[in-house]
Amino acid sequence: MMNSVSLSLRETDQSYVARGDVSLTHAVNICNHKTLTENPTVKINGTTLRTIQQMNIKSIRDIGKWMFNDDGTITVHAHKQVFDKSWTQPARKNWANITKTLHDHLHINDILCGTTELAIPRPIRQDQAENYI
């Protein structure tokens, strides 16, 4: 019914994005789509992604965390990864490739549906609104 009158419900709590609870596959797809027009050579291929996923890296949280840059953008900053014997040389190379590409080309705004404020957890937004009032 809502669709027939051109109405839709928007997600108002997207704090899961700020926590990094976004699938790495989803983030890579968004990044690849974004860079397709900007710089097609930056694309992360499926083999690179699968190699990292086999190392149990499944979400942005497993890669790093969202942080502000000096220019005000919010990008993924990778954790310092300690490679044990299970990490092959291609997996190590792919880790570096994915973390650099996501940091350089994916912003939190690319994932959010709406303003950046929606990534702030609901209780914090409520406190901010009450303090403002």
Strand percent estimate: 5-15%
How many domain modules? 1
Element order, helices and strands?
HHHHEEHHH
By oligomeric state, this entry counts as single chain
Integer-rounded radius of gyration: 17 Å
Helix content: 40-55%
Mean pLDDT, to the nearest integer, reads: 90
Q: Termini distance?
A: 36 Å
Largest sheet: 2 strands, antiparallel
**Class by SSE composition:** mainly alpha
Q: What's the total number of strands? A: 2
Order the strands across the largest sheet as they lie in space.
Answer: 1-2
Number of helices: 7
Shape assignment: globular
Low-confidence stretches: none
What do you see in this structure?
The protein has 133 residues and is mainly α. It has one domain (19-114). The chain contains 7 helices and 2 strands. It has a two-stranded antiparallel ribbon with strand order 1-2. α2 crosses α5 (89-105) and α3 crosses α5 (89-105). The radius of gyration is 17 Å and the shape is globular. 17% of the residues are buried.
What key attributes describe this structure?
mainly alpha, 7 helices, 48% helix
Summarize the structure.
This protein is mostly helical.
